Task: inverse folding
């Protein structure tokens, strides 16, 4: 065989690679992706390049405004709080707790929820109906209330707050993934796979999983958004991270009494939460559009 | 119809039983770990049935702070929460449904992107932070909008329904309409803050449902018949696009309630969220099972009611009436 077709060979891209090539064309989503990577790396690496320690108090410079406002100091770019602690460093530490906690919750809840949801959708009979009723009951409890209940039982701490939020978001995720898989099960290619004699795991891995990419991204995005908001809410109410841990919600709560004196202290943590959620939402939305276009 | 009702009520009963078991578990855990009362020596099953009997009789226990019945107080507080949710829902539906319909009609245009940006911003703003920021606003613009409490303390309103908007109207011979106006002024800011999230949610749901309807075959047929776009949208599409939003929104009810509870704590409104928060902070743990039963009971009854209403108004759902025939 001396035919050299090295220059005009047909390359068939794998679906994931095709989706990735569409995603690369969406500039806003790519920017959001890079911002997300930067956020995660800065929050992990922040202890090494923070300008000040988040707990160092400085009686010389208390309640400084950001450096662009009148009376600001370039050493404290975003100003200081009532004990002279640097706001930027505290924001970095808060980001570490909030973003890290939200990523952990998203990972564990997604894994557990997918397993339980798939188990409920693929099996029939008693197991599925018991799960159905239990989920109905658990879904009726607002997530803030169930987090309050779990924290009352286990005591307030950052870890317990994460466990409580994870457990309160789990029923919603199980229900959502259950509905998605259930819809997929009625499609004809799944029936064809079943007639081939595929086992449940094979059915899930090759029949269902590649086709539920788009709804899964939506659910994951929602899960992440809700977990950030709930971590911040519980921190704000004083049930989350305890002092001296700083978390974005508890940062807001700690500077509530200074709101008329120095509104910056309340503004910046809120803006940080807002930016994190917006960036992740834009990234997820871009990815979702790429998947839809790739499937068509 | 009767068999459908029985089937739904059957589900309601099972779910309610599971919830009482959860409430019982919380009650026992809290009682044992904090030793608020003398411990019961019987086995747990006997204890559960006596607990269930108490709940059926409307005895949810007594607050360990002021010795008042928890059910009665909880219901009064919950009515105030519901009032807040209802006003916020009304306001955000007025804002969000037209926006969502526009976004769905002009999909993938500049208008659509603009509306969806508003929706993402509304979802991304943490509710309690918006509340804190909103507290700053009236301090700038004068004291037209009060930021804490349900009502000015000068008014003494007897509790009749628990819904203060109605109760203030019942005392008009004493205060005129001033009490009512005062209540409305107290509600405006919290309801606005709560509706940030709701607007985002309703815009997304309406846009999705409108897009789905506009793609369906009967709309294509209507176009082929030569109807104008306005006529198709108003007579064919709207009727089919709006009802599916209701069950979707019902699924979000528990999220809405948990946001409402946060807003109450920020604005110092006497709702169920603040009641639970204050009681837990001061060590009255028995409010937890009572509060949980009140909130979940409302959510269950409300979801059954929406399902029945949906069957009555939407032909698509009426199929479940005739499943067993």
Result:
């Amino acid at each position: 065989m001396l035919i050299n077709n090295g220059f005009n060979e047909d390359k068939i891209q794998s679906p994931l690679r095709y989706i990735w090539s569409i995603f690369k064309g969406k500039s806003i989503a790519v920017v959001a992706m890079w911002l997300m990577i930067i956020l995660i790396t800065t929050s992990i690496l922040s202890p090494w390049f923070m300008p000040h320690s988040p707990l160092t108090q400085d009686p010389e410079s208390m309640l400084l405004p950001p450096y662009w406002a009148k009376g600001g100091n370039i050493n404290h770019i975003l100003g200081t709080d009532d004990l002279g602690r640097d706001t930027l460093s505290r924001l970095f530490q808060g980001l570490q707790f909030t973003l890290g906690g939200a990523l952990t919750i998203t990972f564990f809840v997604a894994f557990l929820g997918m397993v339980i949801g798939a188990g409920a959708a693929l099996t029939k009979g008693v197991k599925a109906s018991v799960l159905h009723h239990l989920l109905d009951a658990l879904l009726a409890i607002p997530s803030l209330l169930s987090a309050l209940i779990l924290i009352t039982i286990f005591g307030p701490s950052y870890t317990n707050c994460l466990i409580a939020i994870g457990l309160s978001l789990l029923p919603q995720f199980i229900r959502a993934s259950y509905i998605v898989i259930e819809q997929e099960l009625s499609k004809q290619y799944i029936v064809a796979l079943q007639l081939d004699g595929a086992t449940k795991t094979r059915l899930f891995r090759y029949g269902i999983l590649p086709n539920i990419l788009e709804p899964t991204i939506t659910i994951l995005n929602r899960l992440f958004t809700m977990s950030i908001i709930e971590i911040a809410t519980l921190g704000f109410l004083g049930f989350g991270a305890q002092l001296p841990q700083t978390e974005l919600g508890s940062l807001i709560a700690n500077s509530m009494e200074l709101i008329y004196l120095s509104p910056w202290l309340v503004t910046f943590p809120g803006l940080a939460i807002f930016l994190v959620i917006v960036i992740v939402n834009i990234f997820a939305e871009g990815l979702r559009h790429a998947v839809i276009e790739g499937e068509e | 119809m009767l068999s459908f009702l029985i089937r739904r009520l059957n589900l309601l009963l099972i779910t309610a039983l599971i919830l009482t078991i959860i409430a019982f578990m919380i009650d026992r855990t809290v009682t044992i770990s904090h030793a608020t009362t003398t411990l019961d020596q019987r086995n747990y099953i006997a204890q559960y049935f006596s607990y269930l009997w108490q709940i059926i009789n409307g005895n949810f226990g007594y607050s360990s702070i002021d010795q008042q019945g928890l059910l009665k107080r909880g219901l009064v507080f919950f009515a105030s929460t519901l009032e807040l949710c209802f006003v916020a829902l009304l306001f955000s539906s007025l804002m969000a449904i037209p926006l969502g319909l526009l976004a769905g009609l002009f999909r993938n245009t500049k208008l659509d992107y603009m509306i969806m940006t508003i929706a993402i911003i509304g979802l991304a703003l943490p509710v309690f932070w918006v509340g804190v920021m909103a507290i700053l606003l009236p301090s700038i613009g004068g004291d037209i909008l009060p930021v804490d409490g349900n009502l000015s303390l000068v008014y003494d309103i007897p509790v009749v329904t628990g819904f203060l908007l109605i109760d203030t109207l019942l005392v008009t011979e004493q205060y005129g309409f001033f009490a009512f106006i005062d209540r409305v002024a107290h509600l405006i800011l919290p309801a606005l803050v709560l509706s940030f999230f709701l607007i985002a949610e309703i815009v997304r749901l309406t846009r999705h449902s409108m897009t789905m309807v506009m793609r369906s075959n009967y709309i294509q047929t209507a176009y082929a018949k030569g109807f104008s776009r306005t006529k198709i949208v108003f007579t064919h599409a709207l009727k089919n696009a709006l009802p599916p939003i209701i069950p979707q929104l019902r699924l979000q009810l528990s999220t809405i309630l948990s946001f409402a509870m946060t807003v109450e704590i920020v604005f110092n409104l006497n709702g169920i969220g603040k009641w639970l928060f204050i009681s837990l902070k001061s060590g009255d743990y028995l409010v937890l099972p009572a509060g949980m039963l009140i909130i979940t009971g409302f959510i269950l009854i409300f979801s059954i009611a929406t399902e029945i209403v949906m069957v009555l108004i939407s032909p698509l759902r009426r199929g479940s009436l005739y499943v067993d025939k």
Notes: The first helix of chain A runs from residue 15 to 24.
